[in-house]
Amino acid sequence: MCGIVGYIGERQAYPIVIKGLKRLEYRGYDSAGVTLYNNGKITLVKKQGKVVELEKAAENLDTTGVIGLGHTRWATHGEPNDVNSHPHASNSEDLVLIHNGIIENYASIKKALIARGYVFHSDTDTEVLVNLIEDVKKQENVSLGKAVRKALTQVVGAYAIAVFDKNRPNEVVVAKLGSPLAIGIGKDNSEFFVASDASPFIEFTKDAIYLEDEEMAVIRRGRDIKVRSIIDDEVVDPYIQELQLDIEQIEKGGYDHFMIKEIHEQPTAITDTLRGHLLPEEGNIYLSGISDNIDRFKNANRIIMVGCGTSWHAGLVGEYLFEDLARIPVEVEYGSEFRYRNPIITEKDIVIAVSQSGETADTLAAIKMAKSKGAFVYGVCNVVGSTIARESDAGTYTHAGPEIGVASTKAFTTQVTVLAMMAMKLGKENGSISESRYNSLLRELEAIPAKVELALESDALIKEIAAVYKDSPNFLYLGRGYNFPSALEGALKLKEISYIHAEGYPAAEMKHGPIALIDESMPVVVIATKEGHYEKIVSNIQEIKSRKGKIIAVVHEGDEVIREIADYVIEIPHTTEELTTIMSTIPLQLLSYHIAILRGCNVDQPRNLAKSVTVE
Ligand code: AGP
């Protein structure tokens, strides 16, 4: 996700836009840019890196002007560099546009525009959009507002945009679908602010309009704001609300911490990760990283998943998925071990590097070592243009957006989402899953974001459970099959933000030692969903109960058996066994969050930890 800021009014725009971009940097910080209009002249400056780099680049430029648009980027298409930074100008340089979102069908639009003589300087979908608007404007000889509306009816994807035409310097046109866009309204319409959230303008005005999806607005300096429907051009009477939030709350989307915000962002993050790849109506999954290397995957001796921490847990889910669906042998390696144990690697090995930051030193070193021995490396990263992504031979990005909380949440579920798509696609290519199982998995994966939304509704119950067990010195987390990695991940979450010792185990392993730990002071979180060895996990629970252990069970909604024997039951929606990890991890994230808060811990920046471990 990116941050957009716009100003049109009576004050100097530059300081307002720059300060606003700094407040939005939590949304992305790969690059930043600003465009200013002053008496017929447009100044446009943009720079890779944080906003402070942009300020340095603008130091000796004329930054006067009462109209300005600014952008801080989280790269989705095109590496983070100066030319791919926003704002983007049209070929005529009359139009300038900033965009937060993803234009899925940009490639076909770009091809048509090139055929009509347009040239492109960047790799972005956004530059395509600004030239599409210019093309419509010229072809149909209409106003900017009409051109924007008609252009957007040709676009598939998500956007929050602001666009400016230097030939009509007293207006800015904005539009929204899928990405947030707030409009701040100054006194007597003397000035207007546009932003991804209200943090850039809350100090100037508390009166705001939040556009709804498929809405656009023509904002005219010192005059008015006209909101219309993009679909049918109907005038909309917007609701002007008086904001009560403070800056910090706004940056966290109204949540108390980035971690809880990111836990609740997971339905959107998974939807964004699926977007453009999962097409159930076509019965297909598009992953160019796989398609372009399909023979290599078909002929691979084995796949080696490499990662650290949570990403290693995602790799473990990947092992279950790839072996179950694609019948390709898989090993899972910690980056730190793999890089030093002199493993046997051949050209017929594929290494899948899983990393949110794309900068983890041990994972990076491991894939460099593997490449030096001839392996093919596939990256599953969340940061476009990150070192691991660039070191990989191919890959698929998660689109979780920036994950600010040190504890990985939406990164994990989107990593598993990508690995599931990869395994399903390879299973179909290899003929190792039937057409009906493939299509049923497609439809189930499509339904996951809505099911995650439902799983999040257990938040209040989980907060109660957290209050009961927040002072326990130790926890055990148990799961079987696909839920074993969830158990490991749940234990890690609790450890790293509440500082309680917790261990994840395969449930059947209890009798090989850990059951000696069980007594009335030991809470045991058991993931006991219907799929995967249900009867056996019920026996495990009874073994624990008979030793006075306390059971917090994650079960499928409607489960009446475990409700009878557990101390607490958290229900999650049914899904297929292959996708159960995504669902079962949600209550475990919430449990660790609430226990940590009740223990007074800093959940966003836990002690001793860093978001990205770029050292050994
Ligand atoms: C997980 O909550 C931690 N933040 C940590 O284990 C993390 O997953 C690990 O350091 C790997 O980071 P990466 O995904 O950026 O490579």
Small-molecule binders here are: 2-deoxy-2-amino glucitol-6-phosphate
* Rg from Cα: 25 Å
Which ranges are low-confidence, i.e. pLDDT below 50, for 5 or more consecutive residues?
Answer: none
Task: State the major sheet.
Answer: 8 strands, antiparallel
Shape: globular
Overall mean pLDDT: 94
Give the beta-strand count.
27
Helix content class: 25-40%
Oligomer: single chain
Query: How would you write the strand order of the largest sheet?
Result: 3-2-4-1-10-9-11-15
Derived structural class:
alpha/beta
Report the total helices.
Answer: 20
What share of the residues does DSSP label as strand, in percent?
15-25%
Query: What is the end-to-end distance?
Result: 30 Å
In short:
The chain contains 20 helices and 27 strands. By secondary structure, the chain is of the alpha/beta class. The strands form 5 sheets. The chain has an 8-stranded antiparallel β-sheet with strand order 3-2-4-1-10-9-11-15, with helices on one face. The protein has a 7-stranded antiparallel β-sheet with strand order 5-6-7-8-12-13-14.
Key traits:
eight-stranded antiparallel β-sheet, alpha/beta
Tell me about this structure.
With 616 residues, the chain is of the alpha/beta class. Helices cover 36% and strands 23% of the residues. The protein has 20 helices and 27 strands. Strands 3-2-4-1-10-9-11-15 form an 8-stranded antiparallel β-sheet, covered by helices on one side. Strands 5-6-7-8-12-13-14 form a 7-stranded antiparallel β-sheet. A 5-stranded parallel β-sheet has the order 19-18-20-21-22, sandwiched between helices. Strand 9 and strand 10 (192-195) form a beta hairpin. Helix 8 runs parallel beside helix 15 and helix 17 (459-469) crosses helix 20. 56% of the residues are buried. The structure holds 2-deoxy-2-amino glucitol-6-phosphate. 2-deoxy-2-amino glucitol-6-phosphate is lined by residues 308-311, 355-357, 360, 363, 406-408, 496, 612-613.
